[in-house]
Amino acid sequence: MILQTTIFPEQATEMAWHIDLLFWFITIVTTAVSLGIYAAVFGFCVVYRRKEGEAVQTPRIVGSHRLELLWTIAPLAVFLVMFAWGAWVYNMAMHAPDDVPEVYVVGKQWMWKVQYPGGQRVILGANSADYAKDIGGEAQFEGVMVLPVGKPVKVIVTSEDVIHDFGIPAFRSKIDAVPGRYVTTWYKPTKTGEYHIFCDQYCGTNHSLMVGKVRVVEQAEYEAWLEGTYKTGPGKNSVDGSLAHQGRQLFMKLNCIQCHNGEAPRAPLLEDVHKSLRPFKGGTTAFADENYLRESIRKPRAKVREGWDPIMPAYGTTGDNALSEDDLVKVIAYIKSLRKGETPNLTQNWVPPIGSDTGPAAEDAKTPAGPKSAAEEKK
Amino acid sequence: MSTDYGHTAKSGASLDHHDSHPHGHAPSYLHDGYGWRSWLFTVDHKRIGIMYLVMILAFFLVGGVLAGLVRFNLVSPTGALVDNDTYNKLFTAHGVVMLFFVLIPSIPGVMGNFFVPIMIGAKDMAFPKLNLASWYVWMAGSGFAVWAILAGGIDTGWTLYPPYSSRSSHSNVVPGAMGVFVAGFSSIMTGLNIIITVHRMRAPGMTWGRLPLFIWATYATSLIQVLATPVLAIAVFLLMIETATGWTGNPVGIFDPAIGGDPILFQHLFWFYSHPAVYIMILPGMGVISEILTCFSRKNIFGYQAIAWSSVGIAVVGFIVWAHHMFVAGISYYAALLFSLLSMLVAVPSAIKVFNWTSTLYRGSITFQAPMVFALGFMVLFTIGGVTGLFLATLGTDIHLHDTYFVVAHFHFVMVGGMVLAFMAALHFWWPKMTGVMYSDFWSRTAAITIIIGYILTFMPQFYLGYHGMPRRYPNYPPEFRVFNVLSTAGYTVQLAGFLMSASYLLVSLFNGKKAGPNPWGATGLEWAIPSPPITHNFDKTPVVVAAPYEYSLNLTQTGEKADVR
Q1: Distance from A146 to chain B by nearest Cα, in Å?
Q2: Does A195 score more than 50 pLDDT?
């Protein structure tokens, strides 16, 4: 047990190195100052202790503006260095590089659902029996999130129910999974191995079991893993089972295409929407990011595009137009992938994916998540 | 019935007023009426202070036992004692009891009530009946909280974050929130009373520049209590609405996004109170430390004005740092920058205080009775609590440390290492004044050292755990964290021994403690110019203040007499 104890926690990303450097800077500065204070307190207590039979006479010292100014400004200066350094690191940690693969993570009590761009999907979670085994050295988790070493990946996190937090200590990364919005972070793993994933925001009974592992592997191993991993879509290869492709199917099935089309448009075309500047009624504008797309689907009347009528029905989490968090992710992935001229034809029915062995298209579409994944979720 | 009580209260020779006071004087407040009515219907600020003290010590015992259950459950990586649900309810109850029913009312309710009027030379609070009402309101609030805990507990954590608390938890969130809501009004009443008492009831000559620093600190605390507590009331009231309307099947969406709310809104409202609440807990403790360090080193305080204004500075800047609890909750990047910067600013006044206290010891004539040992322990532990706050105010490191045991260790160093030690210091400093008797010197020093050592052993390992990523509120954890959890639990038992020791010699002193006399420490404040225990109206005639506090080098009390130490 003691042998498992380490002095320094594992560093598995570049960010871990940055955060540790800052951590040890603050540790050394504050330890030095604290020890200085302790030395003064202890020294004064020894030197100026009242000795037996000594007259109680002390000098009348009421303060020193010069000293007080010194220990107002000096700590402030040190604190401002910490602030600036911390802000620089935070800036790096919060802003992902452009054009990196996006992995969606949806939390729910008490599991994580990780969806890869190719449609691969893993579920993370544990139960106490697993931890009992873990003590014997044999951890068994529902699934493992796999990432390639040396490649940045953007992580977009949300929650289906209450607030969770997707934290990986070895990556020095932590981000709240807030229901109703997307929060993003990113990793660039630098070291292969298996690391803990914890839920860091209290979420109920099995909060401490909403844990898993992330495995960082070499690129070739990663590709082999992607190939062999179950995808939610009907197709088995990484192109037609992709999140964007599944989103396209939903786009047709949910009749988004009836208005968002090029032939008889009743709503804006969604080509090249992502990251574009959108003008709204009332003269405001906003850049279209994940949260904007999300809001436009969940609450279409929150921001109405200039030149269009607010006719779109809201796709909430319950009711007739219910759209699960998992499916919403697919639709958004599709909209983000949509380039000029790629909007489907209005009359074109949705096309069963290549390699699909399912029956008629319409039947399959009735259960968009697929029966197998529904069974998975019940776990 | 009342006579029965009277006999009980009289037992112990030293409490007998015939011994304590020459004939012809008014009886001490403890002997001014004996029946239960004379306590429960009293408007005497000192009796109300004692009533707070009794209840707070009872809640401290409850909260301490809950902490023990939490700690002992953590000696095993899969939970040694209880299942996950019970564990969640235990740490929630520990947090709610310790924060709202021990720490927040501890020094304002007990020491503030008892000593603010005396230290400024007043005969009572400005509003004695409001003062009594505040105790009853607080008791009503604690009644709701106790009901919530006994009826099956609350499993949300003391932070009550929705939508978990409002929509998902099936525990007693509404009575628990009601307890916090009601107890808040008591806090407002006490704060209001202290502010007006300090403004309107100072004795002749007690100028703002001659106020003891404990008064400055309590005054700053009261400002926070009056201005911040209503926001907590709003937050928990809205939470109760969302929860209770959920039972009808037609919920009003306030915080749950599934029904149109915003969960981050609650966090803003909650921390707008709960961060300043941290200063409600620590500021009065800082005031106590200023009183004790000067007295036991026979020195003037170093930088009176700097310490007084830093209390006010902490109170004001403390209001605008709340979102540093939300750096990883998806708040705006620029908001995070601003709140990190402001959090750095609020650390400066605390640093000033620590440096000034240290300088106060310089060339003193220092003795080490129990209050001083606790006060020195406060300086050591509060410094650790303060500097570890910098790791959390710094954006980069907060990403990693947020919601881990590092945070748990940090705020326990401030709350327990700071406030509980300050409360113990205050209790030992003013015990002879409140009861008229002195406790065992040897045992009190031993207990103080035991508590400090146990304290360090409990919470130092948690910094390690947090840096290595162990999240808060985890009854199950990976086995590599076990060693440090066991160490932490061992520390708890050492602390427990220390606190039990304190309880024993303090209780014993009530029955056979030596008489303390009016000024056992040779201190300069007005509270030491009157008999111990004080008479009901504190002063036979209104005192005239002629000196600044802490004129130990001139051997001069605030009323112009000799402050002889021996």
Answers
A1: 20
A2: yes
Q: Do A318 and B258 touch (CB under 8 A)?
A: yes
Domains and CATH numbers, chain A: 102-229 (2.60.40.420), 243-363 (1.10.760.10)
Q: What is the overall mean pLDDT for chain A?
A: 84
Q: Are A221 and A197 in contact (CB under 8 A)?
A: no
Stretch (H or E) spanning A186:
strand A183-187
Q: Is residue B503 part of a domain?
A: yes
Q: Which residues pair with B438 in a beta bridge?
A: B514
Please judge whether A204 and B363 are an interchain contact, meaning their C-beta atoms are less than 8 angstroms apart: no
B347 touches chain A (CB under 8 A): yes
Is B396 within 8 Å of A87 when comparing Cβ atoms?
A: yes
Instruction: Say if B350 is an interface residue toward chain A (CB within 8 Å).
Output: no
Interface with chain A: mutation pick from B78, B156, B256, B399, highest number of A CBs within 10 Å: B399
Residues of B in contact with A175 (CB under 8 A): 328, 330
* CA B301 to chain CA mean position, Å: 23
Q: Could you tell me how far CA A157 lies from the centroid of its own chain?
A: 4
How confident is the model over A96-137, as pLDDT tens digits?
998 899 999 999 888 898 999 888 888 888 765 655 555 444
Scored b (16 or more CB within 10 A) or e, B527-540 reads bbbbbbbbbbebbe
* Least reliable range by pLDDT among A338-352, B32-46, B496-510: A338-352
According to DSSP, the residues that pair with A147 across neighbouring strands are A216
Position A373 confidence tier, pLDDT thresholds 50, 70, 90: very low
Exposed, middle or buried: residue A144 (CB in 10 Å: 0-12, 13-18, 19+)?
A: middle
* More confident position, A39 or A224: A39
**Partner-chain residue, chosen from A57, A85, A208, that has the shortest CB–CB distance to B476:** A208
* 8 Å CB contact of A196 and B478: yes
Q: What is the pLDDT of residues A308-358, one digit of tens each?
A: 988 999 998 887 888 999 899 999 999 999 988 888 887 665 555 444 444
At B420, list the tokens. Answer: 């509980």
- Report the C-alpha gap between B385 and B537 in whole angstroms: 40
- Write the CATH number for B406: 1.20.210.10
Work out the average pLDDT over A242-270.
87
What's this model's pTM, rounded to 2 decimal places? 0.90
Secondary structure class of A141 (helix, strand, coil): coil
**Which residues, including other chains, have CB under 8 Å from residue A74's CB and lie 6 or more apart?**
none
Name the helix (H) or strand (E) containing B385. Answer: helix B370-393
Q: Are B181 and B233 in contact (CB under 8 A)?
A: yes
Gap from A310 CA to chain B (nearest CA, Å): 19
Domain assignment of residue B252, yes or no: no
State what percent of residues in chain B have pLDDT above 90: 87
Strands (E), B212-350: none
Question: In chain A, whose CA is at the least distance from the CA of B551?
Answer: A60
Split into its structural domains, chain B has a count of 1
d(CA B243, CA B167): 6
The answer to whether the bond into A189 is cis (omega within 30° of 0) is no
Tell me which DSSP letter residue B48 carries.
H
Q: pLDDT by residue (tens digit) across B130-171?
A: 999 999 999 999 999 999 999 999 999 999 999 999 988 888
- In this prediction, residue B2 carries a pLDDT of 38
Cα B63 to Cα B77: distance, rounded to the nearest angstrom = 23
B354 contacts on A by Cβ (under 8 Å):
37
In a domain, B233, yes or no: yes
Concatenating the DSSP letter of every residue in B153-218 gives: ---STTTT-TTIIIII--S-HHHHHHHHHHHHHHHHHHHHHHHHHHHH-PPTT--GGGS-HHHHHH
Residue B553 lies in a domain: no
DSSP E strands, A224-340? 277-279, 285-287
Q: Which domain holds residue B494?
A: 41-246+267-529
φ/ψ of A84, rounded to 5, equals -65, -45
Contacts with A287 from chain B: Cβ below 8 Å: none
